[in-house]
Amino acid sequence: MLRIPANQSAAPYEVRPPQPQISEQQFLSKTENAVDDFIAQGRGFLESMQQQRTMLKGAHRKMLDVGNTLGLSNGTMRWVERRMSEDTYIFYGGAAVVLITLYLVYRWVKG
User: What are the φ and ψ backbone dihedral angles of 9, each rounded to 5 degrees?
Assistant: First the structure.
């Protein structure tokens, strides 16, 4: 038979009174406010992006109007737009090459 000294309990843990904690209602209230803030930030970001899109569409239209006024053909305008997309691909490719090179130099220096 196992004897337990008088100053030790048989349970492997000690029951302590609960520590002061935030009540469930306060926690839910704070969480709800945080979610509302995130949603408001998302809406603001979306509205900003929509305004920028509208502004860029207007600038694109004005560029086409100026091109037509100067006598540029539709073919020339399409060529310019195609070149812009090709330049984007070249930029991302160059950025990837630079990042890979920097990584390799970092690994070489670090040893």
Answer: -100, 160
Angle subtended at Cα 82 by Cα 46 and Cα 99, rounded to the nearest 5 degrees: 70
- Say if CB 76 and CB 64 are below 8 A apart: no
72 C-beta neighbours (distance < 10 Å), count:
14
Distance between CA atoms of 6 and 99, rounded to whole angstroms? 69
Structure tokens at 43: 């809406």
Express each pLDDT in 60-99 by its tens digit: 888 878 777 777 677 777 787 888 888 889 999 999 999 9
SS3 43: helix
Residue 35 amino acid letter = V
Instruction: Look at residues 54, 56, 78, 83 and name the one whose alpha carbon lies nearest to residue 68.
Output: 78
